[in-house]
C-alpha cells in the first residue's frame, strides 16, 4: 500500500503524535508512507521509519494547500489518503474531489467536534449538526471518528451518509508500556513508606485543574495518609509551588518537573488523577488504566466521559469542586485493584489494535476503489 498521511502542522502535538505512531506502525508492516505537512516548519524526522517520506508544503494557511496536495497526488499516485484534523480534511477533499483527475479514496479523521445537547429537540440537534459539519465531508470515502460522541454528531448530520463513519480510537497505549513501567524507581523523593501515592502528569498550564487537585489534597490529608506527585513542567510551576505552600502542603506534595519514563510512577501510584483540560482523551489517563491503576479525571469534556463510562475503579468529578475530587481520591485509594475493567477498556487505545484497524480499513478502501474501476 502506498499511503499519504496528511496533517496541518507539527504545532498540534496531539495530532502529530498520532500521525507519527500510525506512520511508523504501518511502515513496520511494509507499507510505503508519505507524511504530508501543510503548514509550519519541518522538524527532525530521524525517529520515523525509513519507509516514511516527509513532504512539507510550507503554506501559510491550510486553506491554500489544496492545489499543492492535488499536484502531489498527481505526481506520486498514492493508493489511498488518510487525513487528520479539520483543516487537512478540507484541503485533501478539495484537492482530490475537485482538483485531481485521480480519484484516490480519502479517509478523513475527526479529533474534535461540537457538543450537541441531547436535551434539545431532535430536529434542533440535526440543524446544529448540519451547521457544525463541513458540507464537503460528504465527499469523503470514510469518516474516522476518534470518539463515539463525534460519530454521534456525524450521524445527526443529514448531509453526510452515516454509513461512512466509523469509530477508531487514537493509538495512545504503547506496545512496550508494561516493559517501560517495570523499570525501577530510584528517585528518593518518591519514597513515602505507609502513604498512598497520588500521581498526576501534565503541564502546569492546566493551573485551575491543578488548583483543584491541591485543594483536594488539603481536604484529604487529615482523612487518609497521602502523598501527591505532580509530574511535568509548565510556565505556572512557581505559582503552583506557592499555592501548595499556602495550603500547608509542602510536606505531602512534590513537583519534580519532567521525569524519565513516567509510566513507572503510573504503575506505582495508588491513584492517578488526570487534570487534562482537553476535550480529547489523555494519553496518561489510558496508560494508567492499562497498568491497572485506579483513575480519577476532572471532567474536561467528551473524552474523559467516554473513556470512564461503565468502568469500575474510574471516577469522573466536576471541574472546580475540590470536595468531590477529594472524595473520589479517597474512594480510589480504598478500592479493590483486582478488578480488570480498567485494563480491558484501555486496550481500545492500544497501538497494536489501532494499527490493525487502520490497516484493514485502508486496504478495504483500496479494494473498493479497484472494484469500482472494474
Description:
There is one protein chain. This protein is 41% helix and 18% strand. The protein starts with a strand and ends with a helix. The longest helix is centred in the last third of the chain and has 23 residues. Strand 5, helix 4 and strand 6 form a beta-alpha-beta unit. Strands 3-2-1-4-5-6-7 form a seven-stranded parallel sheet, with helices on both faces. A six-stranded parallel sheet has the order 10-9-8-11-12-13, with helices on both faces. It has two domains: 194 residues, Glycogen Phosphorylase B (Rossmann fold, 3-Layer(aba) Sandwich); 173 residues, Glycogen Phosphorylase B (Rossmann fold), CATH 3.40.50. By secondary structure, the chain is of the alpha/beta class. The protein is globular and about 70 Å long. It contains 14 helices and 13 strands. Its EC number is 2.4.1.291. InterPro entries: Glyco_trans_1, Glyco_trans_4-like_N. Pfam families: Glyco_transf_4, Glycos_transf_1.
Structural class: alpha/beta
CATH superfamily of the largest domain: Glycogen Phosphorylase B
| Shape annotation | globular
Tell me the series of helices and strands, N- to C-terminal: EHEEHEHEHEHEHEHEHEHEHEHEHHH
CATH top level assignment of the largest domain:
Alpha Beta
Mean pLDDT: 91
| Approximate strand percentage | 15-25%
How helical, in percent, are the residues? Answer: 40-55%
EC number: 2.4.1.291
InterPro entries: Glyco_trans_1, Glyco_trans_4-like_N
GO molecular function: glycosyltransferase activity
Enzyme class: transferase
Amino acid at each position: 500500500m502506498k499511503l499519504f498521511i496528511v496533517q496541518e502542522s507539527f504545532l498540534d502535538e496531539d495530532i502529530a503524535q498520532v500521525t507519527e505512531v500510525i506512520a511508523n506502525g504501518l511502515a513496520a508492516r511494509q507499507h510505503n508512507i508519505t507524511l504530508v505537512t501543510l503548514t509550519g516548519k519541518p522538524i527532525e524526522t530521524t525517529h520515523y521509519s525509513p519507509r516514511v517520506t516527509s513532504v512539507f508544503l510550507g503554506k501559510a494557511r491550510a486553506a491554500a494547500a489544496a492545489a499543492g496536495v492535488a499536484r502531489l497526488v498527481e505526481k506520486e499516485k498514492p493508493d489511498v489518503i488518510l487525513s487528520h484534523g479539520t483543516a487537512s480534511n478540507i484541503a485533501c477533499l478539495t484537492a482530490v474531489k475537485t482538483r485531481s483527475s485521480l480519484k484516490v479514496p480519502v479517509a478523513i479523521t475527526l479529533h474534535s467536534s461540537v457538543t450537541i445537547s441531547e436535551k434539545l429537540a431532535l430536529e434542533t440537534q440535526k440543524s446544529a449538526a448540519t451547521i457544525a459539519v463541513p458540507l464537503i465531508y460528504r465527499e469523503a470515502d470514510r469518516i474516522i471518528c476518534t470518539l463515539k460522541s463525534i460519530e454521534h454528531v456525524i450521524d445527526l448530520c443529514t448531509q453526510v451518509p452515516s454509513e461512512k463513519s466509523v469509530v477508531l480510537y487514537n493509538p495512545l497505549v504503547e506496545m512496550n508500556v508494561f516493559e517501560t513501567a517495570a523499570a525501577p524507581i530510584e528517585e528518593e523523593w518518591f519514597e513515602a513508606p505507609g502513604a498512598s501515592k497520588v500521581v498526576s502528569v501534565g503541564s502546569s498550564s492546566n493551573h485551575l485543574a491543578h488548583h483543584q487537585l491541591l485543594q483536594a489534597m488539603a481536604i484529604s490529608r487529615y482523612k487518609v495518609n497521602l502523598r501527591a506527585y505532580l509530574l511535568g513542567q509548565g510556565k505556572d510551576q512557581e505559582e503552583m509551588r506557592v499555592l501548595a505552600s499556602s495550603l500547608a502542603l509542602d510536606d505531602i506534595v512534590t513537583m519534580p518537573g519532567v521525569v524519565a519514563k513516567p509510566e513507572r510512577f503510573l504503575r506505582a501510584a495508588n491513584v492517578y488523577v488526570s487534570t487534562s483540560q482537553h476535550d480529547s482523551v489523555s494519553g496518561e489517563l489510558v496508560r494508567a488504566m492499562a497498568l491497572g491503576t485506579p483513575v480519577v479525571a476532572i471532567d474536561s469534556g467528551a473524552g474523559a466521559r467516554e473513556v470512564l463510562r461503565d468502568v469500575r475503579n474510574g471516577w469522573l468529578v466536576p471541574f472546580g469542586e475540590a470536595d468531590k475530587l477529594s472524595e473520589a481520591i479517597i474512594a480510589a485509594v480504598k478500592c479493590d485493584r483486582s478488578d480488570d475493567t480498567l485494563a480491558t477498556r484501555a486496550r481500545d487505545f492500544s497501538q497494536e489494535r489501532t494499527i490493525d484497524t487502520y490497516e484493514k480499513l485502508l486496504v478495504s478502501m483500496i479494494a473498493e476503489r479497484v472494484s469500482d474501476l472494474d
